[in-house]
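User: Please fill in residues for this 411-position structure.
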């Protein structure tokens, strides 16, 4: 059964908003629309449960229960224990805290880490600064023509056994090629290293199956996966208990608190359960009663629905762009190997082009998108940046057709 796009769009109030009528949203890589279950839960929390949670009175009990529900259900969707999932103010903040823990762990040791130049700066800059502690930082570099991150090029970086952590993206926010996470994690583990995967640009296209990927850390942003502005980090127990505690000393024995030095946003954490509501609603609509499948099986089935739809809608856009001789399409030209985040380098600055598209009802963006390192490696003129056209599974073929027509008129 194909994805029922009409059902999907009914779950997002933005598509019924008069303020957004006539506009096609192609800046989803910067943040997706929020699904109705998340909005409903956020509304309820602020109206009925905006008190300190976990106290012995009803409003507090209910608020704490919703926060626990969000952690438990999202963890189950991804096939991990509930205490292996933690919330933070953003993925950048979560990565910063994690990097500080690694700094303390490796300080004074003859150790190395691997980073890539395909990453968004949030999963690159904080790791590179560990060189200040005498930790060697090795760069796994992309192909300067295609942006491809070749797994075979990682092997020489791991040969001497000094690498303790390999940091890389599930996919880049400008190259968009889907990296073989399971293969890379297996290589790193065989060399005695842990892995940290930036999933921010992939998770909007399907929540991860952590056992299948094999990553020790997986980070993504709830506001890009139809939820509130929270960062979500899955950290597997072995690595999480290896690293020094970053929270209050009395919270060090609780895995999901070890890397959350600041108090969580109670309402937004609780509202994250709405993302699980949404996945379950899609599963039930397409496959029947949700209770007959595990949360992980439901998640994987919905993930497949999303990807099949995205690939079908994306390929005409890739073909259209590849046929033009006035732009450079970055990343793979086949939809099945990439996320629907499409960056193009133009012969002019990208931001004015994005502004011109807005006049045609296309919401898109131009710039470097904090992907300065990959764009430099690809030889893109940073003063021009790239035009980025990004969407998720709720985007229709008609909207992509509208986008292509608008591009033809503007360019």
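Assistant: Residues filled in for all 411 positions:
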């Amino acid at each position: 059964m194909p994805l029922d796009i009409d059902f999907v769009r009914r779950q997002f109030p933005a598509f019924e908003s008069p303020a957004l009528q006539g506009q096609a949203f192609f800046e989803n890589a910067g943040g997706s629309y929020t699904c109705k279950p998340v909005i409903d839960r956020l509304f309820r929390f602020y109206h009925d449960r905006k008190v300190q949670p976990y106290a012995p009175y009803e409003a507090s009990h209910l608020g704490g229960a919703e926060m626990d529900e969000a952690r438990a259900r999202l963890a189950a969707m991804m096939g991990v224990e509930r205490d292996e999932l933690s919330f933070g103010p953003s993925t950048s903040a979560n990565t910063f805290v994690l990097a500080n823990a690694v700094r303390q762990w490796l300080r004074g040791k003859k150790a190395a880490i691997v980073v890539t130049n395909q990453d968004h700066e949030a999963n690159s800059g904080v790791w590179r600064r560990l060189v200040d502690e005498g930790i060697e930082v090795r760069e796994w570099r992309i192909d300067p023509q295609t942006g491809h991150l070749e797994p075979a090029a990682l092997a020489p970086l791991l040969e001497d056994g000094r690498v303790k952590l390999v940091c890389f993206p599930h996919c880049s926010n400008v190259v968009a090629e889907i990296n073989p996470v399971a293969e890379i994690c297996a290589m790193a583990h065989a060399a005695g290293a842990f892995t940290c995967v930036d999933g921010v640009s992939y998770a909007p296209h399907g929540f991860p199956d952590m056992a299948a990927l094999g990553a020790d850390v997986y980070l993504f942003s709830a506001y890009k996966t139809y939820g509130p502005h929270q960062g979500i980090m899955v950290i597997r127990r072995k690595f999480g208990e290896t690293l020094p505690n970053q929270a209050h000393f009395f919270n060090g024995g609780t895995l999901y608190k070890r890397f959350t030095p600041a108090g969580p946003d109670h309402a937004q954490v609780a509202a994250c359960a709405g993302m699980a509501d949404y996945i379950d609603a899609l599963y039930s609509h397409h496959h029947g009663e949700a209770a007959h499948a595990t949360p992980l099986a439901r998640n994987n089935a919905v993930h497949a629905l999303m990807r099949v739809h995205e690939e079908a809608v994306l390929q005409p856009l890739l073909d259209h762009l590849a046929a033009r001789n006035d732009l450079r399409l970055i990343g793979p030209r086949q939809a099945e190997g990439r996320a629907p985040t499409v960056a193009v380098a133009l012969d002019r600055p990208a931001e004015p082009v994005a502004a011109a598209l807005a006049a045609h009802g296309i919401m898109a963006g131009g710039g470097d998108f904090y992907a300065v390192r990959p764009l430099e490696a690809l030889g893109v003129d940073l003063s021009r940046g790239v035009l980025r056209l990004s969407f998720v599974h709720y985007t229709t073929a008609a909207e992509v057709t509208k986008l292509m027509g608008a591009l033809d008129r503007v360019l």
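For context: The two ends are 38 Å apart (CA to CA).
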